[in-house]
Amino acid sequence: MRLKDKKVIALVENEFEDLELWYPILRLQEEGATVDLVGQEANKQYIGKYGVPAQSAYAFTDIKAENYDAILVPGGWAPDKLRRYPEVLKMVQHMDEKKKPIGQICHAGWVLISANILQGKKVTSTPGIKDDMTNAGAIWSDEAVVTDGHIVSSRRPPDLPPYVKAFADVLAGQE
């Protein structure tokens, strides 16, 4: 299992896109990674856009980003809430500074925008936030997956298989 001993933060907040949270978590766990669901509150049940629940194991303030190898930001409407938490922005900024993998799909780009880490980065997202991404200095492309160093981005649920494979490859050090 190539991701054995890898620890990943999966951010969660209400109205996450169900598949964009759960598909990456399950695929990374299949490869041996430990994935911790982290929300504003520990042991809280968050509900996805389509009603699938996710229970956080930890609160943002319970963990230290330096103890993790990567971070995943789901899409849906959750990113609009996640980007308002200073602790989330600090986690994303830490991962960026240390060049640890950051996965973002769909509207998750909003979190990276608010963390101010996209200047000059090649990314993709749902086309609905293309202008937001480019206004933040990103170089946007309409592709299923775009990998720029440690940042792996994707557009939407149909792109999940290549997105999670690319993220796992970066996490495993096999770009």
TrEMBL record:
Gene3D superfamilies, alphabetized: 3.40.50.880
A GO molecular-function descriptor: transferase activity
Entries under InterPro entries matching the protein: C56_PfpI-like, Class_I_gatase-like, DJ-1/PfpI
Alphabetized Pfam families for the sequence: DJ-1_PfpI
Keywords on record: Glutamine amidotransferase, Transferase
Ranges for domain DJ-1/PfpI: 6-166
The family this protein is said to belong to: Belongs to the peptidase C56 family.
Protein's UniProt name: Type 1 glutamine amidotransferase
